[in-house]
Amino acid sequence: MPRISPRLTTLNEDGNDGWGVFYRARRMVAEGQPVIELTIGEHDIGTDAAILDAMHHAARAGHTGYAMVPGIAGLRQAVAERVQARTGVATRPENVLITPGGQAALFACHMGVCAPGDTALYVDPYYATYPGTIRSTGARAVALRTTAENSFVPEAAALDALARETGPVSLLVNSPNNPTGVVYPRAALDALCQVVADHDMWLISDEVYDTQVWDGTHISPRALPGIADRTLVIGSMSKSHAMTGSRVGWVVGPEPMIAALIDLATCTTYGVPGYIQDAALFALQQGPDMEQAVAAPFARRRALAREILAGQNTVGLVPSGGAMYLFLDIRATGLSGEAFANDLLDTCGIAVMPGESFGASSAGHVRVAMTVDDAVFATALRNLVAFAETRAHGG
């Protein structure tokens, strides 16, 4: 057959998409084996019934045809008002494009800023799709490494050196961070934004976990002085409202860029189904109480985890302030994250994500999604610690 485009065959540079343990766990479940899945960020509570009722009503009322490609007017307005209220930055509907989830927003942003052959930076550790998304635009994806010793917070000096070396057009950041849960402090963001401005780069800020903050304060870089005109913000209903399968996200940015991204959406996704947008609008209209109810289980389980982990010194907990994950340091076992996760799955029937799935900086770590019932979660975490202690002592 004719060739497959190099844009696709090079998405996973080393042939590994990072999801091997997850796929293996799902195969085991399909075969009837008991597995506690702590892999992906999928809420165990599901989408609220009231949101589903709103979706059903909108569909039955006939909103099943083509919706406006930029998003329905009410939802764009609601997102603009939400962003302005949370950041203090003036935001109009014309600053908003509704997308089929945060992943489509991520792709759109990089299509908007990258020409083929450009270099785009992203912070390591990273969500597993980041480098492939950048490569899909024809750009070169280059990681800005961080260290466990600095709690995986990116440093401005390292960014400046990498920018001088590679001449990038953009930097992608994610706070609260997946996989680490780290919330970037104001001083770090200020310093990063200064480097971004100095090198005339775009800043792409993935803020899908902005309602899941346990310690510290979420700061949107768009709210920092002098950076709004070079910043694109990615948001989503997936994490804030447990609407992962509904695929509703957005990009917020300068009006000329949003207008260009609308042209892209017309040629690619052609928008989001109207009845799903209606449900998202209903969800946003419920205010912060609904968002807090969705976030509450993760805050509760994080507290449980800290109690369990406080009683031992084999498994370290990366100091984190947000998101629905724990990032655990298992280097005392002598195992890589990949080996630990596979061995844990085979021995204990517990599935976690290897740190190496999220980049070289997080080798020797594993990510644990806090996405099962409290009692099951606590038991699984205790078993993980016991397993780690056995491996650390040569078992």
UniProtKB/TrEMBL annotation:
SUPFAM superfamilies recorded: PLP-dependent transferases
E.C. no: 2.6.1.-
Keyword Transferase recorded: yes
InterPro entries to which the protein is assigned, alphabetical: Aminotransferase_I/II_large, AspAT/PAT-like, NHTrfase_class1_PyrdxlP-BS, PyrdxlP-dep_Trfase, PyrdxlP-dep_Trfase_major
Cofactor(s) needed by this chain: pyridoxal 5'-phosphate
Gene Ontology MF, one: transaminase activity
Catalytic activity from the UniProt record: L-aspartate + 2-oxoglutarate = oxaloacetate + L-glutamate
Keywords: Aminotransferase, Pyridoxal phosphate, Transferase
Aminotransferase class I/classII large domain sequence ranges: 34-382
Enzyme class per UniProt: transferase
Family membership noted in the UniProt record: Belongs to the class-I pyridoxal-phosphate-dependent aminotransferase family.
Protein name: Aminotransferase
Source species of the chain: Mesobacterium hydrothermale
Taxonomic classification: Bacteria, Pseudomonadati, Pseudomonadota, Alphaproteobacteria, Rhodobacterales
